Amino acid sequence: MSKWFAIALLISGTVFGTQAADKIYQWVDQDGVTHFSDRPQVGATELKVDVAPPATDGPIVTPRTPLKKKQKPIQYQVNITSPSHEQTIRDNEGKISISASSTPLPLNSMGYKLVLDGVPQGQITKMGSFQLTNIDRGAHTIQVQLVDDSGKEIASSKPITVFLHRANAFGAGAAAAGGG
Fold it and tell me: Other CB atoms closer than 10 Å to residue 177's CB: what's the count?
């Protein structure tokens, strides 16, 4: 045991003990080991130490556990992988297939919600695949949101615009009638 470590132990023991000692005795035994005590020993040298008595009033200070580093919340990104922005879709039944993904992969408690022209569509799904049917022709804004199990939005894709072309019955019949 090093000399300074032993002194530190002895001082801390006297400071935190019930009585504060201001004298410490040091001696070396026949094996060359250095000893310290608060009681006089034969052949010991007295060391003078100034030790303040322990505080008896005021608040007791308890050591605080180190604060954990705050982990940054996971930043999810949602991307619509299909269709592409400003894509023209030709479908006479008004079908639009939408696929989306997120990075990183969502937790099991999360799902995808489709928003068409600002209105949520259908159910929240675990997979980012949606099939819309009977959508009117024209321009439509599509967005996919990643939501938690309560429906709270965690992340959202950039909105994209698609153009749906559908042949109408009037235009198809007029072309057939006028061609004769």
Answer: 8
Report how far residue 173's alpha carbon sits from residue 175's, in angstroms, rounded to the nearest whole number: 5
Name the one residue in this structure whose structure tokens are 């019930």.
Answer: 18
Q: What is the pTM of this model?
A: 0.55
| Tens digits of residue pLDDT in 64-115 | 777 777 778 889 999 999 999 999 999 999 999 999 999 999 988 999 999 9
- Per the CB < 8 A criterion, the answer to whether 149 and 110 are in contact is yes
**Structure tokens of 161?**
């615009």
| E-only strand ranges, the chain | 23-28, 34-37, 45-48, 77-82, 87-90, 96-103, 111-116, 119-125, 129-132, 138-147, 153-156, 160-165
Tokens of 84: 């592409």
Task: Please calculate the CA angle 65-71-77 and round it to the nearest 5 degrees.
Answer: 170
